[in-house]
């Protein structure tokens, strides 16, 4: 009779879960690659092959992507708490399968918009789930580092794929070559997610068993049994750190959504080649991605609030420089600064949500935060399109700079420092209690 191998109880920690964490980093790089394959190409495709000239109309694909991604984020959080993380991750990749084919075969702009609806669902389900899974695995001590690695992989892949797509478009035309990247990414991701990724909900359960409230009483009302409505209200409006993070996240992605639809058109006014436009566009997510390798870990050392405030202010200055420039050099410097400011903000906002949200409803809180954040794609695309149509491309960038400066001020005034201070007695190496044991959800300070 064969002896059953005992189930290995989960432990928290980056080193203890290095193999699964690395695998999830790779999966998230593929998620980012799905966006990068089209960012350089689609605005050029809109003008060259479909004859679209109105900026607002061209930006419809960004708005469609942002709206569906925001909605998918909510369901990703809710379903990952209810059914587990891995099924949601797999479902997200299934939505990606038709996207490259639709972009290759699109006979009209409606197909492009429909493909971006599916891409938004893919991005919302997969990226949200990989975020939650990494937070589950590492525990509180290295949360900023974990988010920095996650977002660096995703946006580094956006940059690399933007460069590759620009090169392929210049060498082989706008279709189909750039979108063959997406077919390869999807196939690889389905194998990795289906065969090798493991469920992480037990890690969240372990952290919940040892959860403690802040000694200052700020989180006393954030107990384990909040309803979905209460979680949404706290994350969106009531809880100062969660709400500030949600609103700053919206502005951050407003800038990204505006840049996605507008920057290639702005850069094209200087008669730059597609490869040069691809390079300019890649600088922003490239610096953003690489910078997060530093800023995520830095937030574990110095805290979250001041890094977020400074990052939004740097973004405002970068956008002002891009708006005031008319050639490659100014735009390149502005793109680098914009990437640096975004790298200071992006993983740190996710770490804030992980700091404040109870492990029992962390997936839902991350999902709601990402609803706010990814609504910024649509807001940026629509705002950018309207202002560009009425006042011009440079005016649209000035508008984004003003909004970013206001977001920096809001965080400075409202957010408190959320970073937990680990103690020697932290529960990093505790193993999961038996399922029959009583699992307290919080302890007094």
From TrEMBL:
Residues 21-419 form the Major facilitator superfamily (MFS) profile domain. The keyword Transmembrane helix applies. One of its GO terms (cellular component) is plasma membrane. The chain crosses the membrane at residues 21-40, 52-76, 88-106, 112-133, 145-167, 179-197, 307-325, 331-354, 375-391, 397-416. It is found in: Cell membrane. Keywords: Cell membrane, Membrane, Transmembrane, Transmembrane helix, Transport. The keyword Cell membrane applies. Pfam families: MFS_1. GO terms for molecular function: transmembrane transporter activity. It comes from the Bacteria. It is a multi-pass membrane protein. InterPro entries: MFS, MFS_dom, MFS_trans_sf, MFS_Transporters, Sugar_transporter_CS. Residues 420-445 are annotated as: Disordered. This is MFS transporter. It comes from Rhodococcus spelaei.
